[in-house]
Design brief:
- The complex is a heterodimer of chains A (281) and B (315).
- Chain A is of the alpha/beta class and 281 residues long.
- Chain A has one domain: Thiamin diphosphate (ThDP)-binding fold, Pyr/PP domains (Rossmann fold).
- Chain A has 10 helices and 7 strands.
- Chain A has a 5-stranded parallel β-sheet, with helices on both faces.
- In chain A, strand 4 and strand 5 form a beta hairpin.
- In chain A, helix 1 crosses helix 4, helix 3 packs parallel to helix 4 and helix 3 crosses helix 9.
- The longest helix of chain A is centred in the N-terminal third of the chain and has 22 residues.
- Chain A is globular and about 50 Å long.
- Chain B is of the alpha/beta class and 315 residues long.
- Chain B has 2 domains: 166 residues, Rossmann fold, CATH 3.40.50.970; 127 residues, Rossmann fold, CATH 3.40.50.
- Chain B is 38% helix and 20% strand.
- Chain B has a 7-stranded mixed β-sheet, with helices on both faces.
- The longest helix of chain B has 15 residues.
- The radius of gyration of chain B is 19 Å and the shape is globular.
- The two termini of chain B are 22 Å apart.
- The chains are: A alpha/beta (281), B alpha/beta (315).
- Chains A and B meet through helix 5 and helix 6 of A and helix 3 and helix 5 of B.
């Protein structure tokens, strides 16, 4: 079991990968990727029981993860590569022609670790519920995880899925909201307020937990606590407070870095703040 | 003209329901999802026999498609059931991203397609669904013609690995089809020499009626049932067209995007020749009985006969 310090070192490398990937093609979404780095590192390097090789699309007897907010593909790709799903060198192909690392994640190019295309928002919770139902039918005791943007909650399908999961006691599912309160056109409060987010999920019949998504210790403690809620007749939602752009000072806390790549100078500044721990690709 | 007779009329949706029931008994991986239309889709018996494999999702079709896509992960074969309008137009993006682009083994089963839904009117009478579905890469599109063919198609698609759109309807129509069903394989119902009528769905029986009327007028019509619109049986279409040198297509769908559109594309590339279309031309439907609507919108044997006479003059 890796220590907190070791996980933080992985996260530092993943953040380097993210800014280098988006810089290389001058496109992609660094802000949300950096904000969710600690959570994905915690999931893939500590929390989930999963087998990168050989990759099994069916994920039988493994925990499986669905990224609903597919635009944070840089963090997803880096974490998948760094945990052994595909060669780290392939990160250099991100968003380039003939790459398996499409702008938004897809199964279409056969990239190991991706089980569902995402990008058009609001769909991943339904997909995760489906996988969770199949695990129950198969007598598979492992867990389904999903991650959602907070802006994405403005999509109606999320609430169809929320109602379904509670009504049908989908209690082998731990979902998580990246609560950074930012979206493309501004803060969520400016664009379309989420209101009492915890209250909404409570009212829809979910167990709700809170955590600091940029604190490794707190993430592991909270997700482990969430696991103790499984099998009790309720789906579990973790509202994860994060800082968009976390780890790179000039990107933090603003929606401006949602979908903008750093220039050469900004990249150098960012890399100066992120220790190279596992070796750049 | 080969004789086709029937002893009873049944709805094609019952063919789906009965096929699904048999699948429930034969294949433990088959699961079914429905958006509050279990009775209309004839899914009750499957639900009764397999309560653990039946998923009532409520009036939430987007969620239904998303759940179905997710259920394939782990080896289930989901059949979703709702009206054709809510099976396609309402959930196009969900099908596009989570089913077609993700290559998931989901069977989208759609009842009450076309005008023959009847009195509910245009909000429910989708005439664009074949077009929407056939444009998606990798999607198989099937529109069977009677109870027997719908039941056979329902069973066949469970053994086909990949996304499928299966379209059927509400009214009781003659049960006449005894030919074996194979996905993508056209069925020659009558061999002829003067014209080929390619028909799908409810219009197949009308094409047979038209063939008899044409025979009385001394016209020899080849009648081919295209139940699988995608992938189209190109070999069968070209073989017949090259023989008869003119074509009529017949379908309960919009002219744009339907069977006729697929045939025209194939013919224009390979061997251009006159084609006439029995289909709805850029119009919504309306309330009425199925028979009234099919007559008003020109989707019956008489319309096919007129189209044949017209296309033969263009030879």
């Amino acid at each position: 079991m890796p220590s907190i310090v070791e996980l933080e070192k992985v996260a530092s490398q993943v953040r380097r990968d993210i800014v280098r990937m988006v810089h290389a093609v001058n496109s992609g979404h660094p802000g949300g990727s950096l904000g969710c780095t600690d959570y994905l590192v915690a999931l893939y390097f500590e929390i989930m029981n999963h087998q990168p090789k050989p990759f099994d699309m069916d994920g039988k007897n493994q925990d499986v993860f669905f990224l609903s907010n597919g635009h944070i593909s840089p963090v997803f790709y880096s974490v998948l590569a760094r945990s052994g799903y595909f060669p780290v060198a392939e990160l250099a192909t991100f968003r380039k022609l003939n790459s398996r690392l499409q702008g938004h994640p897809t199964t279409h190019e056969g990239l190991e670790g991706v089980r569902m295309a995402s990008g058009s928002l609001g769909q991943g919770l339904s997909n995760a519920i489906g996988a969770a139902l199949t695990k129950k039918l198969n007598g598979d005791k492992s867990t389904v995880f999903s991650l959602h943007g907070d802006g994405e909650l403005q999509e109606g399908q999320i609430w169809e899925a929320a109602m379904y999961a509670a009504h049908n006691k989908v209690d082998n599912l731990i979902s998580c909201i990246d609560y950074n309160q930012q979206q493309i056109d501004g803060s969520t409060d400016e664009v379309l307020s989420l209101g009492d987010l915890a209250g909404k999920w409570h009212a829809f019949g979910w167990d709700v937990l809170h955590m600091n998504g940029n604190n490794m210790q707190n993430i592991i403690e909270t997700v482990n606590k969430a696991k103790t809620h499984l099998g009790k007749g309720k789906p579990v939602m973790i509202i994860m407070k994060t800082e968009m752009g976390n780890g790179v000072d000039f990107m933090m806390g603003s929606h401006k870095w949602h979908g903008v790549a750093p220039n050469d100078e900004q990249l150098a500044t960012a890399l100066g703040q992120l220790e190279e721990t596992l070796g750049d690709y | 003209m080969k004789k086709y007779t029937y002893t009873e009329k049944k709805d094609t949706r019952s063919g789906f329901g009965d096929g699904l029931t048999e699948l429930g008994r034969e294949n433990p991986n088959v699961v079914a999802l429905c958006a509050d239309l279990t009775g209309s889709l004839k899914m009750n018996q499957f639900e009764k026999e397999n309560p653990d494999r039946f998923f009532q999702v409520g009036i939430a079709e987007a969620n239904m498609i998303g759940i179905a896509a997710g259920m394939t992960i782990g080896g289930k074969i989901p059949f979703t059931g709702t009206f054709a309008n809510f099976s396609t137009g309402r959930v196009y993006d969900q099908i596009r991203q989570a089913v077609a682009y993700s290559g998931k083994n989901v069977k989208i089963c759609a009842s009450h397609a076309g005008l023959t839904l009847g009195e509910d009117g245009a909000t429910h009478q989708i005439l664009e669904d074949i077009g929407l579905m056939k444009m998606l890469p990798g999607m198989t599109v099937i529109n069977p013609c009677d109870y027997n063919q719908t039941k056979a198609a329902t069973k066949a698609i469970a053994n086909h690995d990949g996304p499928v759109y299966l379209r059927f309807g509400r009214p009781a129509v003659p049960v006449f089809m005894n030919e074996p069903f194979e996905i993508g394989k056209a069925i020659v119902l009558n061999e002829g020499t003067d014209v080929t009528i390619f028909a799908t769905g409810h219009l197949v029986w009308e094409a047979i009626q038209a063939g008899e009327q044409l025979e009385a007028k001394g016209i020899s019509a080849e009648i081919i049932n295209i139940h699988t619109i995608k992938p189209l049986d190109e070999e069968a279409v070209l073989k017949s067209a090259n023989k008869t040198k003119c074509i009529v297509t017949a379908e309960e769908h919009m002219m744009n995007g339907g069977l006729g559109d697929s045939i025209a594309q194939l013919i224009s590339i390979n061997n251009p020749m006159p084609i006439e279309y029995v289909a709805v031309n850029d119009s919504f439907g309306e309330s009425g009985t199925p028979a009234q609507l099919m007559e008003k919108y020109g989707l019956n044997a008489e319309s096919i006969v007129k189209a044949v006479e017209k296309v033969m003059k263009r030879k």
